[in-house]
Structure formats: structure tokens, C-alpha cells
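USER:
Make up one protein:

ASSISTANT:
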Amino acid sequence: LTKFIFTKRGWERMARFIGREEELTALEKAYQKEGFQMAVVYGRRRVGKTTLLREFCKNKRCVYYTAIKSTAARNTELLGQAVLEQLAPNMLGTAFKSLDMIFDYLYEQSREQRLIIIIDELPYFARKDESLVSVLQKWIDEKWLFSKMFLILCGSSLSFMEDEVLSEKSPVFGRRTMQIKLEAFDYRQTSLFVPSWSARDKAIAYGITGGIAKYVDLLDETQSLDENICSLYFSKTGYLYEEADNLLTQEFRDVDLYSRIIETVAGGANQIHEIADKVGVPPQNIVHAMKNLTETGIVYKQLAITEEGNKKKTKYILTDEMLRFWYRFIPDAVGIIEIGKGKSYYERNVKPLLSDYMGPVFEKMCRQYTLMEGITGRFGCIVTQVGTWWGATPNKREETDIEIVGLDKRAKKAVIGECKFRNEPTDISVLYALEARQNLLNGHFSAVKFLLFSAGGFTKGVAEACKKKPCITVGIEEMYS
């Protein structure tokens, strides 16, 4: 049953609450403790922070305020209204004269009874009132510590939350009793939203949403994967059709520059000088922009595992699969979508390329699988770190890579793997190529297992070889079992 709620933006479909058991349990444990508690919850936009906190607050005494991009005075006014609406609706029409009056009232309301106070999108408020975090520290130290308040500070700006709230320089440093950095769902968690789909379709669902809670929740299990992609991306009314522009507008001032950078990275450029050349701006501008993109969780800096101290081996990779899909397929389709022919465009120009698009996504999935299974010791060592490696072959004649590298740093052992997201079975040549690369790793690690991942199964030759070699084959169905 689909439920709707009325918000400041009008009627919106309520998000399904699936997963997040660990985070919800942690919040519940903190809630059950005696005395003052303070949690910091942060994560990139659309990742599901608000849904998590609203689920936690169900049937609890709570004041929930979401700050807006406005003046400090306006945020103070709206916070006061939220306090009265949720604690004293009979007093609506009156107003608090200052932030201190609001905080004093909240103290009185939490002296004898547990009260949750949530300030969501804290950076919007604090950037307009630079004293806000210091004022919070004053009230915590002087009064709230002696109450039953559960204060939760939440924000989407990773840099602000880490630098101004969590770091040692923050006025509230040392006051928090827990923190949650909410990440995107992994591929298995994403599949919980579409449990009846095939393993291949579940993987593509992850590939077009990146596990971002808002996007995953838009998937309609009763429709096919193709119908979902068409309705979300290739329709004028699709939520994700204009999402790239909406997201960038919320995060950055120079939307055109950031859009061109993301499109360039999505197209395969992954080093500063290469991106600068393609975008046509000085490298220093790209460095600044990449810092901002990294802080918002859209891009991450990838280092070659076993050589993380080598700054020359740095790649910038899109973390956001929605943006990668959007910039790969939507710009050329806008005119067709606008005249209502998006479905036809998808069938002819996008669907045949999905296997190719899924290559890097499948690699990410396989790294997640290697870590989840490797930590159990299944691969002959305890894998605690997974990444990728790239560099020159010993004869320096060509560049090559190892898509999956799992390390047991204590035992100095490694597992290495290759992934193929294609319809046909993976053959023995992939195993031979992987064996040939095993000595490319830093000499401190010895490869103890070869992992072959395939969405299309394996040939008999691979199956026979793996009976004699330290090789494990993993089909896509097994990755979901």
C-alpha cells in the first residue's frame, strides 16, 4: 500500500523503511540510556537520513525541525513554531523572542521525561548564525547535561558536519555520545526493495540508483526493470529525468562547470590534467571543484591498493551511479524525451548498452562481495581491505589493472579477482590473464586465491581448471544468496 504525507512541497509518497537495522538499533540503545544523549547523523543528500530519523521517532516524544536556506532569524522563528506545534499546540500564535528562550523551554520539557530534539540540515542554520554551535555547547554544558534530552544534529554537508561538529576544533567536541555516517545501500540491501526480480535485474537496479535510498525507494517491483528505467529516466515526468540538475543546483553555485566536470568523469576521464583539458579550465579550478565534489559524496579519490602512498596513482571516480547513468544516456536523449518518445529511445539506444554500462558497477559489487565474504576467512585469509590496482607491467610496455584485490595485511596475503557482466559465459582466458597479473602486487603480499565473477556463468574449461587451481567462481545468483 502506497502512503502519502503532506509536506511543505505538497503531497509526497512516504518512503518505505527497509534496512538500516544497525543504525536504528544504535539509536534505540542510546534512547534507552539514562540522562542526556547526543547523536550526530550525517551523509550525502538523498541517502535516507530523514527517513531513518522519522522511523526512530515513531511513537516517541519528539521535536523535529528541518532548517531552511534563510536567515538565522527566520530559522529561529520556524524552530520556535516547530517546538510549539509538537509540544504545546494550544500555545500556537505565541512566539519565542530568542533562541535562548527556545532552548530554555526545551530544557524544562526534558527535565523529567525523555525528549528527542532533532535539528535536520543543521548547516543551513549554522552558516547564517556562526554562533549557533557555540550556543548549543553552552546549553549542553550548563543545563541539558542534567536533563533527559536526546539531541540529534543532522546534516547533508559532509565537510561541515565533520569539521564544525565532529572535529576537535568544534565547540561541541566531546559532547556527542554517538555518531552515524549514513552510507548508500550496498547491492544486497538495494535488492530488498525488488526481491522478486532476477539477480541480473537486481544488479542493474543497483547500477541505476547507486543504492541511494531516495532513488531505490522509487523502484516499483510490480513493473519490469525496463518499465522502471523508462518511467524514471526517459519520461518528462520521471523523477530522475531532471534529478541531475536538481541535485547540482542544491549543492553548487556554478552548476554548468560542475555539470561539465561530472560528465567528463562519467565519460572515463579520471585525472586532474585530463579533466581540465576536456572541460577547458585551468587545473587549479578542477582541483577546487573535485574537493567540493568529494565532500558532497558525489566523487571519491581512488588510490591503487598496496601503493596508497603513491600520489601519482590517483583516480577520481563517480560514487553516484545515478549521475553516471544520467550523463551517459540522458543528454543525447533530451529532445526525444521531450516529444514523448523516450521509451523508444531507451529500447534502441540504451538497453543494448546496459551490459557495457554495468562493467564498473559490477566491479563495485564484486568488491563489496569480496569484503563481506573475505572477512569470514572463506578465501584462505581474513580480508579486511578491498580495492583495485593498476600500473605498468614489468616490461613497461603496457598499462594493466587488477579489478579486485582483497588484502589480509596481518598475514601478508591477498585474493585477486576479475569480473565480467555479460550474457555469454566467462572462459578460461580470463583465469589465465588473472594468473599472469598476480606478481604485479607489492611484493609484501602473496596471492592465495583467484576469484572469477560472472553474470553469464562459466565455461566447462573454467570449472575444470578451478578443481586444480586455487580459484573460486562466483555467479551473480550466488552473490545474492
About this structure: The mean pLDDT is 92. The CA atoms of residues 333 and 453 lie 32 Å apart. The two ends are 27 Å apart (CA to CA).
